[in-house]
From TrEMBL:
Gene3D superfamilies: Vaccinia Virus protein VP39. This is FkbM family methyltransferase. It comes from the Bacteria. One of its GO terms (cellular component) is cytoplasm. GO terms for biological process: endoplasmic reticulum to Golgi vesicle-mediated transport; endosomal transport; methylation. The lineage of its organism: Bacteria, Pseudomonadati, Pseudomonadota, Alphaproteobacteria, Rhodospirillales. The keyword Transferase applies. It comes from Thalassospira xiamenensis M-5 = DSM 17429. Residues 65-233 form the Methyltransferase FkbM domain. Pfam families: Methyltransf_21.
């Protein structure tokens, strides 16, 4: 009986490991075989599906992912990577650096933090890395919950996004969309860009406002800032705002 149970457990482990393997790199291919029209998305709230619709006529493109977290998990850019796009992934968590280099070898992968001025900030690392943050107030409020715990803190160098793009953006490349998800410092990241020199067609920003009225959205600092830079509000998911550059918005109205 003991031998039987041991074999059974081994078989279960083998099945689960095989399933994880199949649901990894090959999930996309399997889905396409089962249904040629199937598409796989990875964002938490369908942000990449909205972006895919906006860029449906564009085969190749370039993204900048600030606060990239993981090559696939909750990624707003991995769908596009699978479709042949490339970009820059910026993630201050040193544990993620090797994973990005392995799973996103065509991308430029940078281990650095972003804020509105170059300095050293305390980086709070949680039991769920998706919640890692430089925002001390947000870190403390999450640490007080049952589900989340601060595992460690460290000092990390942060830079302005325009400085990072100055040295890392390939020559002659335009940014199609920028995704910003930095757990509380999103406005500071926006303020760190040169919006004349580096002007994405679309800007996706995490904004932790759980109120869906248009008036509430319009009163947010992120909304006011991006509108002042010539962007128009396009969509909101539970935790994200999507803004479109005015000229790009006009082209979508004319062609769709």
């Amino acid at each position: 009986m003991i031998m039987f149970l041991g074999c059974r457990r081994s078989a279960v482990r083998f099945f689960l490991n095989s399933l994880r393997w199949l649901l990894g790199k090959r999930l996309y291919l399997i889905a396409r075989i089962l249904d040629p029209n199937a598409r796989i998305f990875y964002s938490q709230e369908g942000e990449d599906a909205i972006l895919a619709r906006l860029f449906s006529a564009q085969k190749n493109g370039f993204y900048v992912d600030v606060g990239a977290h993981h090559p696939r998990r909750f990624s707003n850019t991995f769908h596009f990577y699978q479709s042949g796009w490339t970009g820059i992934n910026i993630e201050p968590n040193p544990s993620a650096e090797a994973v990005f280099k392995k799973q996103r070898p065509r991308d430029i992968n940078l281990c650095v933090g972003v804020s509105n001025c170059p300095e050293k900030l305390v980086y709070y690392e949680f039991n769920d890395p998706a919640l890692n943050t430089f925002d001390s107030d947000l870190a403390q409020s999450r640490d007080e919950t049952v589900a989340y715990t601060i595992l460690t803190t460290r000092e990390v160098n942060v830079e302005r996004i325009d400085s990072i793009l100055e040295r890392s953006l390939p020559f002659g490349v335009d940014i199609d969309f920028m995704s910003i998800d930095v757990e509380g410092l999103d406005l500071k990241v926006l303020m760190s860009n040169d919006w004349v020199k580096y002007r994405p067609k679309c800007v996706l920003v995490e904004c932790l406002l759980h109120e869906f009225s248009l008036e509430y959205i319009q009163n947010s600092d992120v909304y006011s800032f991006l509108v002042s830079k010539g962007y128009v509000f396009f969509a909101k998911t539970y935790n994200s705002f999507l803004f479109i550059e005015k000229k790009f918005a006009e082209s979508k109205v004319l062609t769709n």
